[in-house]
From TrEMBL, chain A:
This is FAD-dependent oxidoreductase. Keywords: FAD, Flavoprotein. It comes from the Bacteria. Residues 417-459 form the BFD-like [2Fe-2S]-binding domain. Pfam families: Fer2_BFD, Pyr_redox_2. It comes from Nocardioides lentus. Its cofactor is FAD. Residues 9-292 form the FAD/NAD(P)-binding domain.
UniProtKB/TrEMBL annotation, chain B:
Residues 1-58 form the 4Fe-4S Mo/W bis-MGD-type domain. Keywords: 4Fe-4S, Iron, Iron-sulfur, Metal-binding. Pfam families: Molybdop_Fe4S4 (PF04879), Molybdopterin (PF00384), Molydop_binding (PF01568). SMART domains: Molybdop_Fe4S4. It comes from the Bacteria. This is Molybdopterin oxidoreductase family protein.
Amino acid sequence: MSPATDPGVVVVGAGMAAVRLAEGLAARGTAVTLLGDEDAPPYNRILLSAVLESACDPSLLDLRPRGSYADAGIDLRPGVRVVEIDRDAREVVLADTARVPYDRLVLATGAIPTLPPVRGLVRPDGTLHPRVHPFRSVADCRRLDAAVPTARRAVVVGGGLLGLQVARALAVRGLAVEVVEGGEHLLRSHVEAPAGAILARDLRRLGTEVYTGARATRLVEGPDGTTLVLDNGAALATDLVVLTAGGRPATALARRAGLEVRRGVVVDEGLTTSDPRVHAIGDCAQHDGVTTGFVPPAWEQAAVLADRLAGGDLTYDGHRPVARLRATDLDVAVLGDPLTAVGDVVEVTNPVVGSHRRLVVRDGRIVAATLVGDLSRVGLITGHYDRGTVLGPAEPAALLAGDRPAAPRVLGDDAEVCTCAGVTAGAVRACRSLEDVRSTTRATTGCGGCADDVRALLASRPLTPSGGTR
Amino acid sequence: MSGTTTHCPYCSLQCGMVLTPGRGGRTLEVTPWEGHPVSEGGLCRKGWTAAGLRGHRERLTTPLLRDRASGELRAVSWDEALDRVADGVRAVQAAHGPDGVAVFGGGGLTNEKAYQLGRFARVALGTSQVDYNGRWCMSSAASASNTAFGIDRGLPFPLADVERADVLVLVGSNLAETMPPAARHLDRCRANGGTVVVVDPRRTATAERADVHLQPVPGTDLALALGVLHEIDARGAVDTAYVAARTTGWEQARAAASGWWPERVERVTGVAADEVRALADLLAGCSAGRGSAVVLTARGAEQHAQGTATVLAWIDVALALGLPGRPHSGYGCLTGQGNGQGGREHGQKADQLPGYRMIDDPAARAHVAAVWGVAPRSLPGPGRSAYELLEALGTDGGPRALLVHGSNVVVSAPHATHVAERLESLDLLVVCDLVMSETAALADVVLPVTQWAEEAGTMTNLEGRVLLRQRAVAPPDGVRSDLEVMAGLAQRLDAPGEWSTDPAVVFAELGRASAGGRADYAGLSHERIAASDGGLFWPCPDAGHPGTPRLFGERFAHPDGRARFVVVEHRGPAEPVDAAYPVHLTTGRVLAQYQSGAQTRRVRDLPDTGPFVELHPMLADRLGAHDGEPVVVTTRRGELKAPARVTSTIRPDTVFVPFHWVGANRLTNDALDPASRMPEFKVCAAAVRA
């Protein structure tokens, strides 16, 4: 395979996967064009809920300094919508009928949010109800952010990762928030019922009402404002309705072009679609039956594809997903897929403190895990999971147990108290005062770290009769 | 005060001490130098017992020559030994050219010796092949500081400044064990209301004394720094006025950090996202002069194939907060070896000339050549870095002879088995040392040299404070100083110029050679330092200059006066763990030993435990290992058997081995940092079995 030259690599999409790929290609001297349908320069989607919460400066959203694309050799074209792929001519067709030729085409079209079937959501003219906010793009985020100061109440439709993040962000901003989840518990596509129940309790404790097993059916306008009606009869008066009820891979282009598409655009370990000149990465791609929706695998795919398009032979062999909730005061980590993973389950649920932790272990390896309400060992557990560490039989339980409380320290006469001067507890006990300790043993005169021990030893010293001789 | 004031022979703190000879000079009494501003009367166990080598039966007092037939070393006269070295040098250079002979120095040598060694290599031997063990010390921090600030002085302020910091972050430093008297500054910082943060894979004695301890996976300090930078930026806490006025490169650096949100950092470092946020909160409160904060790195952060990048990432954090140049604030490196600072300034580094001048700079060459009385074009260019030099020994195009001063490379170099093989392949190995170190034991010629109490010279401590080592006793009969060794060889090799053996004279020459350089010592003299209040800080360009305790108040040392943000990328350890080698191995020191232990292991009053393998109870359980019983650590390079120390203070996925004994460095990885050429001592992949 010869490295692509003119007309180079064309990427449909300018999201996180696309930019990572472009940077990788540009660093290897390969010409690359990004066609992004959003007007905003490429941004970091991960940070949107933090921006909404006012916990992140919006200027940090830019993935690169705005003026740096051309300097880096990346031809960035925002606000450009691709309507068709002409595989025979090796061109993509834009909404304005212009055509862009490619040597290699990469689909990085991401996912599009699904609108739940709620009556009144879309008005007769096809536009969204003004109080309804999807939450996917930076434009969505800005629009919602602008609506927050004049709102008092919000309903978040969808109790997944994004829904909980948005719910917490709005609550931190001072709104009265309610969450509506159609499934039987929160985070239903990631965790088991007990974990979901703990999360619901946490949210209620934080002042956010949660309705599970309930679907929003109608949005109605009344004299008191807007009301969202649920299928259980509840009517939630609200100022804002935020839709976070999932998304699906954006595959329409690929499908129309006759590429193999199932849930996502099907790619092999070289991230190549059914057309050897067309590739797909990120949320729109399906590898080994899996679409991900996470940034780390998208970046991994971008790195692999950048290498391959420049003549390398890296392959993508799947990814170990880790979902971390980014929401103030809610602690959730989901490793792998605990709902389907096969293995021995080691589990500690403590409703008293609101924690649920579950490891799925196969052949000594952690293949999935749920950690809710207690992330004290999350780094270590994630490390073992990522590296496929083979654990000992007692280790999974030890990982979920707290550290044993340290035994009270009893210093025998041989115990070294001052490491700087090599002074034992016995030598300190033989002294009469701190001054005596300093002058005869040199303890406390080095780093001073033993001062507390020395004082304690002197204080516990048996009293000797005054004037006593030794 | 009776006795002679001097400084401890070991670490870079250089505690002041007073030496009083007893019983005919065979023994020495050590007492603290009470008023000295660095140590304030404090000493650690190593300092207290430093005189233990005086009159030691293993002290070398006569030159030794290896008999090629029997393989045994025999005592010879100095003349015979030096003749043999000179003959060997001439023979090798006749066959292989000037670069056939190499010189290896050390960060424990005085400034005078380090300077003279660089001059000896370039002028007497004409070789480019000179480097030193400082590459394995703080070289990553040095290259990062040069890049970011345009100058490398470990601490740009006196160490005691940290006592007034609101937040003090130590990344990869265990100073409570490596330089114990410095730990009092942590206690005082806390007593003053400051918060001390320690970043270390082990809960060390230092971490025990901190308010906050973060325990990252070895080799991920860089990702942690990026995460902290990200969070500071996310909070809008960047000191934009400072960044605009005093730095360049911020936009690129922030974009690089924007990809490091705390949950991503958590996955890479093992440090929980909330801990990353908490550290960012602490530091954000000190931004833009609202508070004071200091970030210090040491070997834990620096001894990596990405050591320079790691330090740069923490410097980026400091710059974003507007710390460098503000009172009680900034970034600094805690240098390790006694003269790690001065040793890197005056020309024993492959790429440098005295005064921290670069050897490929024509103006620098002209200046130094004039001081040396030689033609600039006669000076060789840059040579190989320390490990690359050792690796080239005895190979095609590599040196065939090596002169070693103040280093025990067989113990201290990474992938040590390989290094020992290279040494054995030489035509001539000459080692100058006090005792028969593991490296001296391989030598063809062993030359017995003076130790600290027996010589004068200057040492530049971790603060850039130039201190005077004074002679308290005469050396034993048969022992010469390194300066005398070089003078003797220079004369035999017909080297041009004067080769003084008087440290004060050599120091004056060093001053002239350094004049106008970044590390300018021109205004210093032995006399002036002796009369000063506890040493003088460089730069000190003339005799009337008071020295420079604090740098960067007005400008940085780049021509435009600005500091540089540098974009860095986390790549992780050169050798990631895998199924065959599933555990991280890291190395470090214990309080009672120093470096390769050549000195401290021979001091009777210091406990010599031998190597041990520290591991967590969870890992011990997995392996069936028991405290005190042997375990075997294996890497792709070697194997070590040592007793287990089971302790919950270490990460469960990591084992620790101290490097003072033969063995630890047979395991370590020789992957090098691209800028500093620092080997990756602090992390590699290992397997452990009971």
